[in-house]
Structure formats: structure tokens, C-alpha cells
Amino acid sequence: MTQASPTIDLSSCDREAIRMPGSIQPHGFVLALSPQGTVVQVSDNLERHLGKHPEAALGRTLADVLGTDTAAQLEPELTRVGARPSFAATVRVGASSFDVLVHRYDSLLMLEFEAVDRIGAADFRHLYPLVGDFLLQLSDAETIEKMSAKAADEIRAVTGFNRVLVYKFDEEGHGHVLAESNDGVLPSYLGQRFPASDIPKQARELYVANRIRLIHDANYAPARLVPQNNPLTEAPNDLSFAALRSVSPVHLQYMRNMGTLASMSVSLIVKGELWGLISCHNAAPRHITFDKRTACEQLGQILALRIQSRELADELQFRLEVRRIMVSVLAGLTQGSDFIENMGSVFPELLQFARASGAAIVVDDRIVSYGDTPNETQLRELVAWLQLNTHDDLYYTDKLPEQYPPAQAYQRTASGLLAMPISRIHEHYLLWFRPEFVYTIDWAGNPHAKDPAQDAPPAPLTPRTSFASWRETVHGASAPWHPGEIEMALEFRTALLGIALERAEQMAELAE
Ligand code: BLA
Asked: Average pLDDT over the chain, rounded to whole?
């Protein structure tokens, strides 16, 4: 494995203009036509593919550059062209065959010629049964993990990549490998986590617009566009939708460092946002033809739609379950006479209610706690801080040590806090704690499970450093509080205050 090149600047990842690299990947070539049908820009690898000097093609027609037969084959396909590449034809020029993709951008008609091994035209007929079978398979899978695993298997079968990962982003953009299909050539990354910074913001934005990308050989030398800028606008070409767009050198280095020379990723868009990626890798360079890429893109769309409906159903299920627990807790609370004892008896449900690992009730001098919580002194200090600093019906954070530095002392048990004042008059609190997320992860089957801090520092731009930096990023943070949990907790509080009020009235009646 190579080390990251010292010339690569990692501080400006978010600013790299990846849509305008001014070059393409050299396994194909580009001819850009003006609205009048003249070649006005070409890639400088024309010589290699066509045996023609790039300058000699400028100012000429398609027929001049490709021959009249090929031009005649292509021209009818160039009349209705949109901003996304569509397949025009498979053409033969000299001894080589090319799939030609065409799209219109920046007032240019962009023709991309991808070298292919086969002689005949690309064939899309196999797509229909494939997509139909996949839909059926997905309807049998109950969980998002199982659906993702099926998608990974299917995409590996279509493309022959060594490894296919289904990668999900969390609210902060960090990634988590949910499913994997692997032929054993490359290491497994199942369960692995990566920081948001591994796929910078502008790349994610591009991946929402353009849902598939292929890197054919991470060792490639880019082919530059001639002239360098779009001659009609004098500005760098926007290659957002060009299938041959040259990719970020930082990412190419990352790929070389991880021992993968080819990659393809398919965006998973759920409710209009980048939910995750299907990310494929190969140890050796690999080309996937447009017809197969189209199949993968469609499988990705089907998976994303199924994920969307599954998430909606899971959310409803989750709310029902939380409500069921809430009702049973409230029923338990009306049993005995001592409120605190009553609360103590429903602790296990209380934990389940908030998916917490510790809970405590603080009522004046009395503290009752259950599960993993800070100690009594720490709890008192925390409540004193809450009284001074929080004034809402509910306070919650998944980064307590950041908000309240003394919690650094016990962040492993309590990085997340949900605090509920349970009296309108007194300073009484119900507290739930969530542990530091890093330590709750199930690393089963993951070869990278051991603590990286104990090893020599890993080389930059590798999944190993990514994992270490992910750990760094999520230090002192718990799993986030789910909006459904917060809503239910507020409802729970209202019910609890109602019970307390009823109790107080009963006591008053008794006293009369
Ligand atoms: C792009 N980074 C990507 C992509 C992935 C990853 C999947 C999409 C491109 C593709 O299909 O290959 C990240 N790939 C991973 C990770 C694993 C993996 C985490 O296989 C783990 C198994 N990358 C960095 C840093 C920078 C960076 C520090 O790690 C910042 C300069 C940049 N990554 C970067 C850029 C792109 C990218 C700029 C966009 C590439 C492009 O489309 O031009």
C-alpha cells in the first residue's frame, strides 16, 4: 500500500471544485459539439483512442472525426438530448468499440465515448427480469439490513465487484456499513463506521443530483480538455453529469491506500436526501458498462423506495411501542401510596421507554437510581446545574460533557441525558442516561474492533484512520434522542403531572 502523498491538502476538502476538474478519466474520450454541430472541445487522449491529434478535431464535424457511417449512426440520436446522459449507440471506430453517452450541459452537446470490449450494441433487455426479481426478493426482507444485504448481493452479481457495501449516513453525516457482499479478496468492513469528512459536503450534494459514479482505475492519469475551458462560455466546464468526470485526487489516494483500484457508488436517496450509498470496490481496475450501471442505478432506486416505506412503518411501530410502555408505566404509578417507591418499581420499563441504560429520580433529598448512572454526589451536582441552566419542560442532549464539562468524569456511562422536571412547584427530576455511543457498538465479526489508540498511528487517508477519526468525532456523545421519544416524553410528563395533581387533591380531601 502507498502512503498518502504529502502534497495533498486535507484542510480544504470541502472547497475542492469536484464538478469542474477540467479533465476526464481516460478509459474513454469526449467530443463536445457547439449548437451548430462543430467539435469545439475534445479530451487530449483522442490520439490514444482514435489515432487523431486533438487539435486536428477542433472545428470539424462528427463525420470528419468519426467517419460518415458512424456520424450517420449517431446523428439521429442527438436530436432530443437532456441534461442527464442517455445512451445513444454503440459505435465502432477502427478496431475499437465505444458506448456513446450524450447529454447537454453548459450549452454544449457532450458526447462521451466509453471503450468497451464487446462488438455488439449494449443490451438493456436483461434489465427487466432483473428488476422484477429484485422487487420480489425485497418484499420478503423484513429489515433494512436484510434488504440492503440482498441489494449488495445482487449488485455484486451484476457487476462482479470484489466487495459491495451498503453504507448509511446518520444525522451528522457519519457513515455506518449496514450490509456487505464480499468474495473474500478484500477485507470486510461490515459494521465499520466512518466520519462525515470522508465524503465532503460538495460531493454529497453532487451525489444527490447524479446518482451513480464509476472510478475505473484509481491509478489513472487524467485526460485534459482542449481547450481547457468551455469555448462558448469561457468558463470551466461543469462535468456534474459526465460519466467520465475525473474524480478528486484526494479520493483516488484514499482508494489506492485501501487497496482498491476500481469503485462505483450508487446514491440511496430517501425523502429527497442522501440516505446512504451502495459502494462497490475492486482490487484491480474494472469497467462496468452503461447498461449494467443503469441496472445498478435502478436497483438502488428500488432499494431506496423500500427503505423509505420501511422507515415510515418502523417509525409508526416505534411510536406505538413507546406509547404501550408509557401506558404500562402510568398504570404502575397509580398502585401504591409512595410516589418514589412506585417510580422505582417501574424502572425497567422506564429504561425501555427511553432506550436508556440508566435512570434516576431526584425528589428533594431522596435519590433513587437504577442501571448505569453517575453517583449520588454527581447526580446532585447535575440537578443543581439543571435548575440554574434549563427552564424548559424537557432538557435533552446527546453531548452532555460538551454542555456540562463535569460530566466528562462519567461520560462513558452518561454522555446522553434526558431530564424531565416532574413537579410544577418543587425541583423534582426524572433523569435518563445514555452511554457514550462508541462503547455500545456491536463490533461482531469486525476485524478492526480493537482499540486503535493502542496501535501505532495509522496512515492518513485509509479506512483505519477514518475509523480512528470517527471515534474522535463521536467522543463524549451518545446515540441521539429520537424526535418520537421526545414527543412521548413530553406526553408522559403531562400525564405524570396529572397523576401528581390528582394525588394532591386526594390528600387534601382526606385532610378535610
Ligand atoms: C468520495 N469518499 C468518496 C466516496 C466514498 C468515500 C465511498 C464516493 C466515491 C466512490 O464511489 O468511490 C469514502 N470509501 C469511503 C470510505 C470507505 C470507502 C470511508 O470505501 C470505507 C470503506 N476523502 C477523505 C478526506 C477527504 C476526502 C479526508 O477521506 C478530503 C479531502 C475527499 N472523498 C473525497 C472527495 C470525494 C470523496 C473530494 C468525491 C470524489 C468525487 O466524486 O470526485
From this structure: 88
Please provide the DSSP assignment of 81-137 as one string. --SS-EEEEEEEETTEEEEEEEEEETTEEEEEEEEES-SS----TTHHHHHHHHHHH
CA distance 405 to 388: 15
Q: 297: CA distance to ligand 1 center in Å?
A: 19
Report the C-alpha gap between 104 and 224 in whole angstroms.
19
> Judging by beta carbons within 10 Å of its beta carbon (0-12, 13-18, 19+), is residue 161 exposed, middle or buried?
buried
C-alpha of residue 174 to centroid of ligand 1, in Å:
12
CA of 461 to the centre of ligand 1 (A): 9
- Give nearest CA residue, ligand 1 atom 21: 463
Q: Which atom in ligand 1 lies closest to the alpha carbon of residue 263? A: 12
> 457 preceded by cis ω (within 30°)?
no
Residue 456 pLDDT level (bands cut at 50, 70, 90): low
Who lines ligand 1 at CB under 6 A? Answer: 10, 13, 16, 18, 189, 194, 197-200, 203, 213, 215, 247-248, 250-251, 254, 263, 265, 277, 279, 461, 463, 466
Q: Do 295 and 130 touch, CB atoms closer than 8 A?
A: yes
Domains in the chain, CATH or no CATH each: 10-311 (3.30.450.40), 313-511 (3.30.450.270)
> Which three cell numbers, joined as nine digits, stand for 411?
461520560
CA of 460 relative to ligand 1 center, distance in Å: 13
Exposure pattern of 333-348 as b/e (b: 16+ CB <10 Å)?
beeeeebbebbbbbbe
Per-residue pLDDT of 364-401, as tens digits, reads 888 999 999 999 999 999 999 999 998 888 999 999 99
445 phi and psi angles, rounded to 5 deg: 75, 5
| Ligand 1 atom nearest to 10, measured from its CA | 31
Cell of 508: 387534601
